[in-house]
Amino acid sequence: xxxxxxxxxxxxxxxxxxxxxxxxxxxxxxxxxxxxxxxxxxxxxxxxxxxxxxxxxxxxxxxxxxxxxxxxxxxxxxxxxxxxxxxxxxxxxxxxxxxxxxxxxxxxxxxxxxxxxxxxxxxxxxxxxxxxxxxxxxxxxxxxxxxxxxxxxxxxxxxxxxxxxxxxxxxxxxxxxxxxxxxxxxxxxxxxxxxxxxxxxxxxxxxxxxxxxxxxxxxxxxxxxxxxxxxxxxxxxxxxxxxxxxxxxxxxxxxxxxxxxxxxxxxxxxxxxxxxxxxxxxxxxxxxxxxxxxxxxxxxxxxxxxxxxxxxxxxxxxxxxxxxxxxxxxxxxxxxxxxxxxxxxxxxxxxxxxxxxxxxxxxxxxxxxxxxxxxxxxxxxxxxxxxxxxxxxxxxxxxxxxxxxxxxxxxxxxxxxxxxxxxxxxxxxxxxxxxxxxxxxxxxxxxxxxxxxxxxxxxxxxxxxxxxxxxxxxxxxxxxxxxxxxxxxxxxxxxxxxxxxxxxxxxxxxxxxxxxxxxxxxxxxxxxxxxxxxxxxxxxxxxxxxxxxxxxxxxxxxxxxxxxxxxxxxxxxxxxxxxxxxxxxxx
Length: 587
Hints:
Elements: H1 7-24, H2 34-55, H3 61-94, H4 97-111, H5 115-121, H6 140-159, H7 166-187, H8 191-196, H9 202-214, H10 222-240, H11 248-263, H12 266-269, H13 277-284, H14 286-303, H15 310-340, H16 342-368, H17 391-394, E1 408-414, H18 416-426, E2 434-440, H19 450-454, E3 458-461, H20 468-480, E4 488-491, H21 501-504, E5 516-518, H22 521-534, E6 538-539, H23 541-545, E7 551-553, H24 571-580
Helix pairs in contact: 1-2, 1-13, 1-14, 2-6, 2-9, 2-11, 3-4, 3-6, 3-14, 3-15, 3-16, 4-5, 4-16, 5-6, 6-7, 7-9, 9-11, 10-11, 14-15, 15-16, 18-24
């Protein structure tokens, strides 16, 4: 280990990374707050580095900036490339096209340090269970970190405009931005923007920076040492205790505040307990552990099981430990040595740039191909026919138009679940005698759609997460348009497990097409509640195929996946449900 490293900070990193690993393993509900500890530490250490490079430097600012950025890229990119290449290779043999397409997109975003932006646009919700099956979902943090590295040094250049006291100016700017960021964090309603973007994350990085600028190490007194220990216990408790004693947003801010206290308590924490050598080594390798743990867990969940046994979990941790040890010693630590020798440096640059180009291009190509690498008849996918398998679902968006024929007018309203149901109607026996019009999401509240409601014979509300409030709002719009709410149909929710990967992994077994899956409890609860509330106006999709044990089929009777992502219908599922529903009651 580098003798210049701060062991007490490495130990703090060790606890943070253990919390993150346990969270992604499903054992610590607030373990994700370990990332917030990392952001504070990064702000502290980055500010120390920039203070030496830029604030005290009277010349060569551009060189100092480029040198700083280059150091960070060299620190982060090689390991990300190795992890990305590993994921693409493993997923080539294990993943279904849609999942492989999503992974390819994520690899490109990770290589460009933008996976946080991708996550904010696509999945949006970090806590969505679907993220557990994404090997690179966690690299959003690396994206945020690198974006901080690009933007943060600009503050140092601005501070240098004050020739008399640039440090004071920098502290004032940081304090103002931290306050503004906290306001953004608490005011922003958009969960994705608050979680994934810099404005609402800056206060974590910024307070670490302020601590680095204002703190001057002094000999700790006993009271200070005791205070540091108390803060350490509170920090660990904040990540370990699963009971919601305080709101999650307040807990996060508390973790940030406690982390600041600990990073400036070096003189109190440099002892055999809080600077323990074993934990310090673990913390020094935290980046490797961070990168590999989700990769291993995601592939296990996807291809084997989403449930962990004690021995299975021990085996997974052993794999994570081995991969982390290898990359820490032979990639992270060796990088510095390679860059010190001219020949090694050129070879290192050539390999890194070459790997970046090859991996990014290959992942981009796989994304363009829709993740299709083999025939998947269960999804009507033929490798030799380069067809966009999403076009089948997207055809519904062309039906966002007024009714034009004398057929029965059926208006479908909803998000992607509404798109699904419109497709079910198109595949049903009544498709020839009804005209379908579609309105996406909550756009139906716009006055321009009133004519469509007033001329409809049936309105079908089909949205993911539909509840009583949504139905009440829809009924108000129907009444305003003169539509009889007795002809409003609330289409039930649907769920077919968490991931098809576990089922697809058994494709060589004779019972492959007989597999069934459990329904997530929240879907069952909502379905039963709404069915009891709305009676004949409720179309129970789950009830059409649920067995006595409450499980759902994975495949249709003609051996097609019911759902590609366990939430939305595949083509096979659309055709099957089009046959199962009793349409006569709606004609």
